[in-house]
Amino acid sequence: MAEDDGRASVVPVLVLRKITQILRSFSVDQPELTLQQIIRTTGLPASTCQRLVRNLVVEGFLDREDDHYRIGLDFVQWAAPGTFGLDLVRLTRPALQALRDRTGETACLYVRHGPFRTVVSLAESRHPVIRLFVVGMVMPLHAGSAGKVLLAWDPTARQEAVRHGLGRFTDHTVVDIDELTEQLAAIRRAGFSASFEERDAGAASISAPVFGLNGELVAALGIGAPLQRVSPADVERLAPIVMELARDASRRIGFRAETPFAVRSATEL
After folding, report:
1. pTM for the structure as a whole
2. Is 70 buried (19+), middle (13-18) or exposed (0-12) by CB count in 10 A?
3. Nearest to 210 by CA among 43, 83, 57, 89
4. For residues 115 and 141, is the Cβ–Cβ distance under 8 A?
5. HTH iclR-type domain location, by residue (predicted)?
6. Cβ–Cβ contacts within 10 Å for residue 219, how many?
């Protein structure tokens, strides 16, 4: 009896693993696949794959039209309740805290509202000397690394910022539209933004984009610190950490690496 129970507990896991392989073969890039494509992608034996695909269609996990299959609408509807009650702040909280812990600096999550950015979540540094941030704090888009991330990946943000006006806050604030456009193109290529004393004297920040389920920009994740602790010389060390945890935040809200970006960068307009 014990041996039978052991087999019963293992066999379903093996079947579920194969089903998972089949479902994961679909993506935003390839939402429809033939049976042969599914077999090649999963590496499953043809007979096994054919049998499982047929059963998945019967149960509503897959839909079939002619020779092509796609994720079933029933499956999508069943999954929908899993998103209820979830929000950007709660889902990205682990990434935010990890960013604070790994860099030692205050980590902030920003979203855009018109020509401004707002802190919607933060994990405060434990250093006695810190840059002051509070949830609800509103700042311009064109001054600071997080704002420039929002400008670089959001095609409407640049228009909003220019329409509002590029005000000067320090001697390092970029107020020339051509210079700003060049910076945004460089930020897009690098995958992150670093700024020094653009909004406040003695302040530094490094930020990276957070993408949503469909590849759209939803937020910027970054660190803010006194210039005495984060200087241009520290960017090479800290930027990869910021980008890594921005990717983690993106994954936590449903973004998949193979998803094409749903929006163009502001510099491509």
Report:
1. 0.67
2. middle
3. 89
4. yes
5. 13-73
6. 28
